[in-house]
Amino acid sequence: MLLRRPLAKSASAEKQAYHAELKRSWLDIWDESPRKARFQEIDPDFPFTRFRKVSNQLNRAQASLLVQIRTGHIPLNYRLHKIRKSETDKCPNCRERRGGARARETLEHFLFECRAYRDERAELLTELQTYRPSLQTITNDSKKAKALLKYVARTGRLKGFDASILQRNMTDADDNN
């Protein structure tokens, strides 16, 4: 026997269809966005689910710093010089090299090269269990991200970030993993 009128759709099915269409629309907008190319270098796994899970385990100061590290908008001299908040883009801890130029204080320099933080970096690399991981690898893994934040706190380089705030909840969160 044929039904004379169509069956009613459930509210749940309507919501699922609406959210699926919304997600498709969102992805289309993202694909056209100029930011997509920039974020592909940081994390090609849009919508950054792993990073969101990591950042949800951190306090606000920790999550803020991790986002700044991921995007490269961290208050080091290279970035500060670009926005005219520092007279130089050079590392304040590195001496003149033989060629006469000091190293630029980039994120890569701060994390993996600066001689002033040799001991702190050794601890970081021991915790990461690798020599030079990518930022994507570090920021998408809870334990590695926490090790990175501990490194930043131990260096004391970022004056705007209190080491006690950066280290707060580290042991509590480690116990939950």
In DSSP terms (H or I, runs of 4 or more residues), the helix count works out at 11
Find the structural class using helix and strand composition.
Answer: mainly alpha
Radius of gyration: 22 Å
Summarize the amount of helix as a percent range.
55-70%
Count of DSSP E strands? 0
The fraction of residues in strands falls at under 5%
Shape: elongated
Low-confidence stretches are 172-177
Cα end-to-end separation? 57 Å
SSE ordering: HHHHHHHHHHH
Largest sheet: none
Question: What is the averaged pLDDT score?
Answer: 85
Total domain modules = 1
Description:
The protein is mostly helical and 177 residues long. It has one domain (51-176). 59% of the residues lie in helices and 0% in strands. It has 11 helices and no strands. The chain has helices spanning 11-32, 35-42, 49-55, 60-71, 77-82, 107-113, 118-128, 135-139, 142-155, 163-167, 170-176. Residues 172-177 have low confidence and may be disordered.
